[in-house]
């Protein structure tokens, strides 16, 4: 029996982009208006009331368009702005949209005039973009919208999908009530509440799955993606009195953050990354049980606070700042993020220093092992057995460990990973992207 076709129905505002486009248009069109702050607030309130299902969409839309006082010149500025505001995890996965150009539909209560120029950059077909359209005067003033378009009405997305009669498995991704309505009506198989930009509690509670990033959606559905394992699944512990800037850097990278005063027992077996304030300690006994821990950033001198020898033997990369540089609030988190994203150990306290560019159209594998003779030969024998084409390979060693990074072409067999993990003297193995 042939596999059912899948369709991906994606919302635009606060999903494909980080912002609500009409709110942003108001900031452009009303920037010289004496009562602009009060009008912005009104527009935002109308947006939120409809997104939470407390006001009909048609009523909300009519009120917002009236308040805008926008024209075509303002639209040009908005498009330029929106192109820079595509949600990080969507822009990271541009290759998915190219590959699935026939299966992705943008369905939005927003407007084609600004949606088409933004999503077209991602190979999404014009005929797969369903949205409202503005009504303008001869001199380009936006005065109204096309009221005959079902997407301007309450339950418009439901009406549109009923009309389209798509055959196959339908996935909905969005942040608002109109997206959930598709699930409620039974027109889509699963609704994924997208929370990278905003989490609306009333919507999250009703979702089949909460997806804090598009990577998470692709991972759960076993679809091709830019990074192997979603960042939102990596538990990052921040311990002690840490500067908010350091935490913001980690949060912006999509990690799941817990800020605590101590290394609580309940996090020991699952933590993937730790950022410690200066003066904080980790007992060696706890460290040895933190089997998923990949890297520690220490905002100061870690001497006597962490057992570096244990960390090295476990394949945990340490970044600290022995000289207490005032820039360490951003420098240390950036080093930790860079290691998680590219495998770079540059400026590490306990690992051989390696800094590598990201290589497009390849997968990067990290293999940390005891520094004993013959391991690289074993690693490459595994690659040869699986007919893997190696794009590039780097090895750095110190007395304790070897750190090998291999970039391979995109085709591989999952069995390959099991074979690499089974090599004798392997300490840690992971796929970066």
TrEMBL record:
PANTHER family: PHOSPHOSERINE PHOSPHATASE. Pfam families: ACT_AHAS_ss. It comes from the Bacteria. GO terms for biological process: L-serine biosynthetic process. Keywords: Amino-acid biosynthesis, Hydrolase, Magnesium, Metal-binding, Serine biosynthesis. Residues 364-433 form the ACT domain. It catalyses: O-phospho-L-serine + H2O = L-serine + phosphate; O-phospho-D-serine + H2O = D-serine + phosphate. One of its GO terms (cellular component) is cytoplasm. CDD domains: ACT_3PGDH (cd04901). This is phosphoserine phosphatase. Its cofactor is Mg(2+). InterPro entries: ACT-like_dom_sf, ACT_dom, AHAS_small-like_ACT, HAD-like_SerB, HAD-like_sf, HAD_sf. It is an enzyme of class 3 (hydrolase). Pathway: Amino-acid biosynthesis; L-serine biosynthesis; L-serine from 3-phospho-D-glycerate: step 3/3. Its EC number is 3.1.3.3. PROSITE patterns: ACT.
């Amino acid at each position: 029996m042939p596999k059912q076709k899948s369709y991906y129905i994606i919302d635009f505002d606060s999903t494909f982009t980080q912002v609500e486009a009409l709110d942003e248009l108001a900031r452009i069109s009303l920037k010289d208006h004496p009562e602009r702050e009060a009008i912005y607030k009104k527009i935002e309130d109308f947006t939120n009331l409809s997104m939470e299902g407390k006001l009909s969409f048609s009523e909300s839309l009519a009120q917002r368009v009236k308040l805008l006082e926008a024209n075509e010149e303002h639209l040009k500025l908005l498009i330029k702005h929106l192109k820079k505001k595509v949600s990080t995890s969507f822009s990271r996965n541009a290759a998915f949209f190219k590959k699935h150009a026939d299966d992705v539909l943008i369905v939005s209560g927003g407007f084609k005039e600004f949606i088409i120029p933004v999503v077209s950059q991602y190979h999404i077909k014009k005929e797969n973009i369903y949205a409202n359209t503005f009504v303008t005067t001869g001199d380009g003033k936006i005065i109204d919208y096309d009221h005959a378009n079902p997407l301007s009405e309450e339950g418009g997305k439901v009406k549109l999908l009923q009309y389209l009669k798509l055959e196959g498995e339908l996935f909905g991704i969005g942040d608002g009530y109109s997206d959930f309505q598709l699930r409620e009506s039974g027109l889509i198989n699963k609704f994924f509440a997208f929370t990278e930009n905003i989490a609306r509690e009333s919507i999250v509670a009703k979702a089949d799955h909460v997806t804090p990033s598009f990577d998470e959606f692709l991972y759960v559905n076993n679809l091709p993606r830019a990074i192997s394992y979603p960042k939102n699944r990596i538990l990052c512990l921040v311990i002690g009195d840490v500067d908010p800037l350091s935490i913001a850097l980690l949060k912006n990278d999509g990690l799941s953050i817990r800020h605590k005063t101590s290394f609580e027992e309940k996090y020991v077996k699952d933590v993937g990354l730790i950022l410690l304030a200066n003066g904080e300690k980790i007992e060696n006994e706890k460290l040895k049980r933190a089997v998923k821990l990949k890297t520690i950033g220490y905002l100061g001198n870690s001497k006597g606070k962490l057992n570096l020898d244990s960390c090295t033997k476990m394949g945990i990369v340490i970044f600290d700042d022995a000289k207490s540089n005032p820039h360490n609030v951003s420098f240390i988190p950036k080093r930790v993020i860079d290691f998680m994203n590219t495998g770079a150990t540059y400026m590490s306290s306990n690992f051989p220093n390696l800094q590598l560019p990201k290589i497009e159209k390849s997968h990067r594998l990290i293999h940390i092992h005891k520094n004993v003779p013959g391991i690289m030969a074993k690693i490459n024998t595994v690659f040869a057995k699986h007919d893997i084409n190696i794009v590039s390979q780097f090895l750095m060693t110190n007395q304790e460990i070897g750190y090998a990074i291999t970039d391979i072409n995109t085709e591989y067999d999952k069995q390959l990973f099991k074979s690499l993990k089974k090599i004798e003297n392997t300490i840690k193995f992971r796929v970066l992207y």
